[in-house]
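Predict the assembly for these two chains.
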Amino acid sequence: NAGVTQTPKFQVLKTGQSMTLQCAQDMNHNSMYWYRQDPGMGLRLIYYSASEGTTDKGEVPNGYNVSRLNKREFSLRLESAAPSQTSVYFCASSEVSVNQPQHFGDGTRLSIL
Amino acid sequence: QKEVEQDPGPLSVPEGAIVSLNCTYSNSAFQYFMWYRQYSRKGPELLMYTYSSGNKEDGRFTAQVDKSSKYISLFIRDSQPSDSATYLCAMNYGQNFVFGPGTRLSVLP
């Protein structure tokens, strides 16, 4: 049972390049999330999708876009990468968006030079 | 004041010790409380999920919630080297989900 799968696991970009991070879950969850994790700052929510067809901004959405492709897949796009976006990105899912624990993938480590 | 505070550690204990990890929070609206374990280069893994004040036990792990003091704890009994990880507290109400920054724990053999 894979749970939440993220690709790629590592990526190095140059400033100004674009990239899409992929996430898929096989738990039939309705809600999906993208977080970034930086040292000393904990997990910060970038965007979430409460259900298929909806997306909403989180705490730090600037510089990112998302697409909920279907119930299983939720992608995160950096249109013009900046060094400040160097981070570890985690995708998570939950049964519903209200009062349910989230289940995480193993992350994408992104470095922007 | 941050919404959720957690001592970042690192916390080092000998194998077999009882470990106490704690978080405080400021928003009394939080209703659900979680503890996640995160190994190096891995994603957070849900350990405990609780709603009410009081204790919840699962094997060597006990989660404690004191809503009146806005304080939650995770106790690990008979700690093992395999428990060495970063422990994140998390809490939510409705669609609002907040994580603590994590406490790094090392259990020394």
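The first strand of chain A starts at residue 4 and ends at 7. The mean pLDDT of chain A is 95.
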